[in-house]
Design goal:
The complex is a heterotetramer, with two copies of chain A and two copies of chain C. By secondary structure, chain A is of the alpha+beta class. Chain A is built from six helices and three strands, in the order H-E-E-E-H-H-H-H-H. Chain C has two domains: about 140 residues, Aspartate Aminotransferase, domain 1 (Alpha-Beta Complex); about 250 residues, 3-Layer(aba) Sandwich (Aspartate Aminotransferase, domain 2), CATH 3.40.640. The longest helix of chain C is centred in the first third of the chain and has 20 residues. Classes of the chains: A alpha+beta, C alpha/beta. The interface between B and D is medium-sized, with 18 and 18 residues. The complex binds pyridoxal-5'-phosphate (2 copies). One pyridoxal-5'-phosphate (PLP) sits at the interface of chains D and C.
Amino acid sequence: MSSDIYKDIILDYYRNPRNFGDLANADVRAKDSNPLCGDIIEMQLKINDGKIDDVRFKGKGCAISQASASMLTEVIKGKSLDDVKAMGKSNVLELMGIDPGPTRIKCALLGLKVVKLAVYGYLGQAITEEVKQLV
Amino acid sequence: MSSDIYKDIILDYYRNPRNFGDLANADVRAKDSNPLCGDIIEMQLKINDGKIDDVRFKGKGCAISQASASMLTEVIKGKSLDDVKAMGKSNVLELMGIDPGPTRIKCALLGLKVVKLAVYGYLGQAITEEVKQLV
Amino acid sequence: MVEKLATINVPRIREDFPILKRRVNGKPLIYFDNAATSQKPIQVIETLDKYYREYNANIHRGIHKLAEEATIAHEEAREKIAKFINANRTEEIVFVRNATEAINLVAYAWGRANIKQGDKIVLTIMEHHSNIVPWQQLANEKGAKLEFIKIDEEGHLRQDEIHELIDERTKIVCITHASNVLGTINSIKEITRAAHRFGALVLVDAAQSVPHMRVDARDLDCDFMAFSGHKMMGPTGIGVLYGKSKHFENMPPFLCGGEMIKEVHTTGASWKDLPYKFEAGTPNIAGAIGLGVAVDYLRNVSMETVHDHEKQITGYALTRMTEIDGLVVYGPKEVTKRVGVISFNLGDIHAHDLASIMDEEGIAIRSGHHCAQPLMEFLNVPAMSRASFYIYNTNEEVDVFINALEKARKLFNP
Amino acid sequence: MVEKLATINVPRIREDFPILKRRVNGKPLIYFDNAATSQKPIQVIETLDKYYREYNANIHRGIHKLAEEATIAHEEAREKIAKFINANRTEEIVFVRNATEAINLVAYAWGRANIKQGDKIVLTIMEHHSNIVPWQQLANEKGAKLEFIKIDEEGHLRQDEIHELIDERTKIVCITHASNVLGTINSIKEITRAAHRFGALVLVDAAQSVPHMRVDARDLDCDFMAFSGHKMMGPTGIGVLYGKSKHFENMPPFLCGGEMIKEVHTTGASWKDLPYKFEAGTPNIAGAIGLGVAVDYLRNVSMETVHDHEKQITGYALTRMTEIDGLVVYGPKEVTKRVGVISFNLGDIHAHDLASIMDEEGIAIRSGHHCAQPLMEFLNVPAMSRASFYIYNTNEEVDVFINALEKARKLFNP
Ligand SMILES: Cc1ncc(COP(=O)(O)O)c(C=O)c1O
Ligand SMILES: Cc1ncc(COP(=O)(O)O)c(C=O)c1O
């Protein structure tokens, strides 16, 4: 197959999303959508001692958005909130191993945006410009 | 002089307008303006037996509009109303001996339009599309 | 004028469109996004070039040579467009930016003066956002009511609803001539008859019809018609509002300023005659002239030929698309009832993923809600992919497209 | 980026403007009608050409390559313009057709929501119709009052009136940055200070300033600013409304339809973020990209150089015009207080006759009321001729112009 951005790993995460579903005892939830694609992602986090103890996501939308969100859940588990706040576009692209191009990048970054919304919400901090600009 | 449309005769009529002024016992008056230049022409006609017995004009504006109106007054004197109604763009251009080009043509035709407005007014007839389109 | 082509010579036409030589991701560009915007023939591109190199000037008020030439060219374009849609008079053609502005002009200038509390505005569920939101705003402001004519399973307007919803409270019916999603061609004459019986006006959104078929404003008997130049081989930034002069004459102006006034005093102003009353400020001069040349191009091919070619290619594409497992097409089954727009979904592949995969094959299609969210909601489909054709597209391109769809299907359902 | 030119190389610049090679009535074109519209450098013309030949597509919603390229270029143009006028943020730049539409947008969207009966709108007597008529319409609709700051004999705003008319009832002050008739450059900072003291907003009509001098929106502290691309080497059909984002955020949309919505349902709609909320329908994509390149061109020359050159040529022309018997110039005597616009009358030669005679010599000037009838009425002058300069004009052209004026004088007063 020549489809560069639909690598097997992306399609695998899309078809078999890891950490999909609800977290019964979540400390914080956040949800957002990407107006271009209509993608929706919700993140539920369990936080303990400034670290992400557990995470689930739910969502609907294109393969890029769903796979990247799922991949992200695996990576942030165990990370400190500060580390999550420091994550950016490059971390997600690295994770996915593709460059979806300037239009689809919003799909790829939706998961990260929602994680950050959750973290800022949990900390009671104002959403930064940087987070708003992600999608 | 190289000024093609400002021939001596035009400038002469502009500087020394024939039939300029008021007609004490006019049967009909009409007035109109050219929105491009702000030219104004008023025509006063004395009509007898279906013929133009006498005519005066007043006005303000560019040389083309004032000279052409003045030249026109000389030509229509003695003409029947039907003949005046039949006059068109080509008659005026012939009279002036110049082609003022598509923009200034409206200046040249203002006098004719006002004469026609007067004639139609005198006859109690509706203004035709053709007259409206002159300027 | 060149003699009308009896049959269409697509290879010859393709020569006129420089962009079709482009390669995308290493593949020859296959441009199937014509409902979003069309490509431009060299004749139009060179017209813009020549305008700026030889006679660019501000129009109407200027006495010098360049201004004279630019004014004549601009007004000739208006005449060409009036003829193209068979308007009664040239002054029934108002230049705007696009179909959207045209509709807003009517909603503001006619709407604010004529719509009152309790009045009804009838739309259809297949309208583009541009023919919905201006009316929603107007209705909100005035306390008027919007009602939507719905569609049957094939994507045709429901006859019963046409005659039920258009009634004596109806002041205007706003309807698309051809749907940018379903491809449906609506029977406008039936609508104008129904509306005029109650003294209601009809605004036709012709953004998807004027570029693709012969449209006769006088025959349709619509009161207003809106379309965009960029979808019919013209430049971006130019569109047209057609309106019967009796309506235009009674309407107040919309945008105000230079060029549209007769006199301005500190205490008030008066307006120029039609169509200038509705054209404030320096217009898109090059755009209008370019659109005139686009119209020349289309007339030269002949709108019958354009429509025939598109029916042919749409029929071919529809047939071939049935070969693909899990592919669902929306809209009328019969090609004669459609323009060359095919919206579809392939299994549960998200429309945007499909568009990305097509892009990798050099194929430009569109995906999403196509500015028709109420229709999407009605059909209960979150998004669709859409292929839309024009005179320069070929069956061979459709074949490449079909192969690419097949590839996508396998990629997602291995 | 090329190093800034220390002194201006006009012959080099003239090479960039193909139209300057044109002959009119057998004479080389002398284009002195820049205040009406400017000519375009080859860089802008070729940008349009390249857009249509290589990456024409509808923007924002498209996923394919062409749409991606067109979207990026369009948004880059916005960034260039934001930088050019030193806006705080890119989303403070809204693309419109021209300065006229920009002003109407504010009068409709901000004005309809904020102006109430008894409120005052303060204008100046030197405004262009585009900055008068939209406010007259608004004032009529709302029962608000317009007041006009008048000018002194030299064409400067009267200080006493500025401070008398702007008061606690004033909701907005609408003022031109540079007069298209008198050439006067108004001191906007003084106005914004006076207005903001009473909580009134300031809209600056920068149609004649942004093309000719450095304009810093943040430094001027104005609330809105309007200008047209076609007067600053850009294509026709594209203009800009700048607005402080706090105002834009609180304003309802103006034109409604595709591209400016977040969600549409049959029952209502919500809006996209800035600046898209104000950009309905397919924009003038090529126009915006072309304007971005025009801005590159101007920055490359540097706005200081542009302004200096125009001061020089205006000073030269003013001096030489005093040689002509019976020639009256309007506006400030001091060149430092003007842009390169000279309005004048020659004896009792009608302005249109003068323009026609100039045209026969290949010289393009403008004549008439210059869309400023209230100013004409105030000065009690029925019409004026106007010569206006840009970066590509020369003293030698001024010499030809002076000779032609002398000829005209002799023709009419032999
Ligand atoms: C001072 C001023 N304001 C506004 C305008 C209107 O510009 P446009 O016609 O491009 O909308 C002009 C140009 O004629 C102008 O000179
Ligand atoms: C049916 C229909 N109406 C209106 C529009 C709006 O056209 P524009 O964006 O050129 O204003 C479109 C194009 O997207 C359309 O397809």
